[in-house]
Amino acid sequence: MNTHYLTTSRTNPQFYIFSQLFGDDLDWISQCDWEGIQNVAWQEFWQREGHELLEQKWHKRFPEYKDLIEALTPEEQALWRELWEKHASDSSAKFWHIFSCAFENYQNELARSFGFQLNTTPDGVEQNLQTLSLNNNPKNSKQRKPSESEEDESYLTANDDPDDLDEEQQLLLLGLPTSFASKGVHKKRKQRKPVSESSSSDSEDSDDLSIMEDNDNSALRGVLNGGVKKNKRRQRQANKLRARMPEFMLEENSRMVKYWFKRFSLFSRFDQGIRLDRESWFSVTPEKIAKQTARRLACDIIVDAFCGCGGNAIQFANTCGRVIAIDIDAEKLAMAKHNAGIYGVAHKIEFVHADFLQFAASTRIRPNVVFLSPPWGGPDYQKQSVFDIEQSLLPVGASHLMQLSRRLADDVAFFLPRNANMSQVIALSGAGQQCEVEHNYLDTRMVALTAYYGSGIIKGPLGEHQPN
Ligand code: MGP
Ligand code: SAH
Questions:
Q1: For residues 20-58, b (16+ Cβ closer than 10 Å) or e, as one string?
Q2: Count of C-beta atoms within a 10 Å radius of residue 90
Q3: Mutate to test the pocket of ligand 1, among 304, 376, 438 (most ligand atoms within 8 A of CB)
Q4: How many whole angstroms separate alpha carbon 39 and alpha carbon 308?
């Protein structure tokens, strides 16, 4: 089985969603419309992000364009238009390529999560995958053909960004072990020189990166330029970088450092003073995923039952009339309030310090939707090949949480580990009911899944929900 890991940029990975309905009456293997799922996912992605991506890349290539265009003759303008069209078609082909790899990973991961239902002998799995056309190259889809430029690609990043150096190099710079750097990210470094970035998050990243660039050629430069000075400078810069990281990350045998490198993917406004405690560093929902969940769950009143430091609640505040954000930990709630202030939405959220189990059993509030993102037992959730959502979620199993939530609302959404036992996820729908499972990818890596229950929020034939 061929799993692809391609990446755009750690600070701004692309977000892909693949979603499918499941129910106990549905034989998903025979009914699965892979091409349909792929096409919908691509169209949604391109509608959501395509225009901005094209604009950003264009601006990077031709920063002088805006000033120039006014003064050009009509003939020159026509040439620029042609260039833009080529840019649009080449860029979309590159994004399509990464998207296709994510989709192929989705097919494989979904098949694996239904392992019990597939023939598990190696030959059988291969055969099953072929039956499911899992090995079809998604590039064959009729919907959209990539341009020829895709054929001879030497690129491995979609943005042509220089800000995508190996995580390993960052760790080496910090003098940390590299064993947990992204697995299987096969990348070729672009030779191009960095172009300065506009957003503060990116510029912060390029700081880190210029240090690393230095590190790269240190031996050679040491000879040419007087290595001692350079080494000192690099050391100073590494110290500066280290000083910005939370203490515990450096103390804990470096297991947590990977979350630091994702900080802008967790909160685009991270550098405006976002606060997170240890648990929240590994639990917070990355912003692009939280935004998508908020779009899907737009309603009058939503309960965010496990608010943490506010990753989801902040986004709900932008799409829902009233957000009731609950957490058992008062310190996290205070951080959530502070973080919501950074996004200008603190006043739209009611922060409730409570145990959700007690809250659900006693409240008279009747929200339209309950959103559940409970603790999964820390990053070790990955150690289970199939994560048991009845035994391993905290504070109680998934069915219990569902039962309590259904006291409050018919529509419930669950943020769950990517290795969650799919049979259990589907069983939560209840007899004769369906659920919609959304697999969330940042670039080609699955981050987690979101399961939707209740006809008000499920998309598709049985659900009433129409995407906003
Ligand atoms: P991860 O698996 O720790 O990170 O969490 P990653 O980068 O996928 O790990 P890698 O080793 O494969 O590189 C992925 C995402 O899951 C996090 O960003 C959180 O959004 C979410 N998440 C992780 N944990 C441990 C929890 C949790 O306990 N509760 C909730 N609600 N979300 C979690
Ligand atoms: N979705 C959040 C992260 C949630 S992490 C975000 O994006 O920021 C899970 C949270 O559940 C933790 O903050 C933890 O304090 C909280 N929690 C654990 N048990 C709880 C309970 N019984 N009631 C309410 N919150 C609880």
A1: bbbbeeeebeeebebeebbbbbbebbbebbbeebbebbb
A2: 15
A3: 376
A4: 35
Residue type, 20: Q
pLDDT at 9: 63
- 399-450 tens-digit pLDDT: 999 999 999 999 999 999 999 999 999 999 998 899 999 999 999 999 999 9
H or E stretch covering 20: strand 15-23
Least confident residue range of 14-28, 175-189, 261-275? 175-189
- What percent of the chain has a predicted confidence (pLDDT) above 90? 53
Contact yes or no for 61/84 (Cβ under 8 A): no
3-state secondary structure of 353: strand
Q: Report pTM.
A: 0.80
Return the beta strands (E) in 226-316 as ranges.
Answer: 301-304
Both tokens of 136, joined, read 């079809």
The CA distance from 157 to 101, in Å, is: 12
Ligand 1, pocket residues at CB < 6 Å: 258, 282-286, 373, 375-376, 378-379, 381-382, 415, 447-448
Residue closest via CA to ligand 2's atom 12 equals 308
**Per-residue model confidence as pLDDT tens digits over 232-271:** 888 887 788 788 889 888 887 678 888 999 999 999 999 9
Best mutation site among 276, 278, 284, 307 for ligand 2, i.e. most ligand atoms within 8 A of its Cβ? 307
- Distance (Å, whole) CA 69 – CA 468: 35
| Closest residue to atom 25 of ligand 2, CA basis | 327
**Of 144-153, 177-186, 454-463, minimum mean pLDDT range:** 144-153
Contact at 8 Å (CB) between 381 and 392?
yes
Strand partners, 446: 441
Residue 411 phi/psi, 5-degree rounding, is -100, 120
pLDDT of residue 336: 98
CB 234 within 8 A of CB 218: yes
Prior bond to 146 cis, omega within 30? no
